[in-house]
Amino acid sequence: MSKSAIITGASKGIGAEIANRLNELGYNLVLNYRSNTSSMEEIIESFTNKDTKNIIVQCDVSNYDDCKTLIDTAYENFKTIDVLVNNAGITKDNLLAMMSEQEFDAVIDTNLKGTFNCCRHISKRMMKQKYGRIVNISSVVGLSGNAGQVNYSASKAGVIGMTKSMARELGKKNILVNAVAPGFIQTEMTDKIPEDMKAEMLKNIPLNKLGSPKDIADAVEFLISDKATYITGQVLSVNGGFYM
Ligand code: NDP
To answer: pTM score, two decimals?
Structure first.
């Protein structure tokens, strides 16, 4: 029987790569994005496995009611949802002394509250089906902190705390909840980082290169696979040794 998964923020970068991978694995997909419709459509067109059903739900994950619609739509189309990947995320970097309330709130609302919103709405349904794999995409800076990212690191540290609490609540119902903490991965998000800063960062990465979205898709594939059935409440770092 084919499995189904929801991926938020699937229109580009890491989310798009996770979508590709789950398509290759035969998953039916519910793909969410916020603004980039053409990019989302291109991702689906590029899928190599044409035997799956894919639906697109455009919504802003920071909106509680929109996330309910996302989850409801998923269950209207597929009897069960096996996997939820909370990947949608943004940065609005600034030094603490310069950071606006809007910059702080926007990042917390998308990265932290967005993860809560989707988990909240899917939790009862996954408990009822007595099966679920939730993977929350955190970040290395949620573990290490980073100057200029007070908002972002707080949101990603929050995701880790939330992951552990949810793992404790949902384990009895055979729902595993884990986080992946990527290091610096080559996407539009990191394209914004100035070259001199990137060069400086590379000096601190033992593997001496940025990661690729495929590295994160590999971690997600493992965590949702039958090879990870006794793993919950964990943070899997995928960072080239940048933070240990
Ligand atoms: P990108 O900026 O390349 O892509 C972000 C995706 O999230 C897009 O599909 C975007 O949709 C979607 N998105 C953003 N805000 C919302 C929202 N409010 N509601 C729904 N969808 C939204 O980011 P990455 O691929 O680099 O990052 C993916 C995840 O990985 C994020 O959570 C990020 O924090 C995390 N991460 C990334 C790292 C990196 O080095 N790249 C390192 C550590 C963690 P659209 O474009 O349509 O608006």
So the answer is: 0.98
